[in-house]
Amino acid sequence: MLKLSAIYRYSKRLGLIGIIFLFGGWGFFGHQRINRLAVFTLPPEMIGFYKKNIGYITEASVNPDKRRFSVVDEAARHYIDIDHYGDSALYTLPRYWNDAVTKMTEDTLKAYGVLPWHINRMYYSLKNAFLIRDTERILKLSAELGHYIGDAHVPLHTTENYNGQITGQEGIHAFWESRLPELFSDEYNFFTGRAQYIPNPQLAAWKAIEGSHLAVDSVLMEEKKLAASFGEHRYSFETKGRQTLKVYSREYALAYHKILQGMVARRMRAAIKLTADFWYTAWIDAGQPDLSELIFYAPSQDELKLRRKELEEQNAAPEIRTRAHEI
């Protein structure tokens, strides 16, 4: 029941009740833009490979949302309800998965979201894909890791009040993460600087969660105050394809966007930066394989099977103690 409940609750996160938006996370538009722009922050040794595959990296960024109803454990990977665990949970929740399972149980964690831990798991999967030079998995995992990192930068992915359903603000989830970026992101400054190495990917994932959760009160309270002044004038109707949909009006969106004082742009920019940082870190930790060799090369299944076997043997080998300066 916990797993089915998580899927149902995640469907509401997407705005499938109340005002209609069909996308999750940053919306298809936001996730695709985050992944695409992250490519251009990579170093010369990586950017050729990623630019060659930028179409896939962009399009596949939304795949985790597409399978959220078909894969039982998928929904919980997109959020974490920090406030379920108490007022100080942002600082007291165990940062590492095994510690968290010991303290809360795995069923509880899956019921209220596993996003920061899943990001770390994806990092290790990407590193292993680099190690065996599996082109297909490198691209798949890079695209999907970018999706989860994007979710970690959305404030409403860190609270039980994810769609304003507790405070009478149904629809705010899609409003903040889809409507605002679609209307205003062409005006954003997305300059982030070059990708940088992350010493501890698990703590970096939690840092993103912290930044998002600290913004939750502003996201909700400012919209509630604005709604009181606009009343029903905050809605309008727009035609998309053959559908006429009830949406938040451009005037209301502009007013809310101004009140947030660049919050959406800052969270998108941080998501772009961290996505590239994770790709770069996985590549570094895999020994910096020559990606130019993979641009036009797809290893056979037999070759990949052999590489996976070698990696498994390497991971199973006993640890060799060395002096500190040799690590």
Automatic annotation (TrEMBL):
Keywords: Membrane, Transmembrane, Transmembrane helix. The chain crosses the membrane at residues 12-29. One of its GO terms (molecular function) is hydrolase activity, acting on ester bonds. Gene3D superfamilies: P1 Nuclease (1.10.575.10). This is S1/P1 Nuclease. InterPro entries: PLipase_C/P1_nuclease_dom_sf. It comes from the Bacteria.
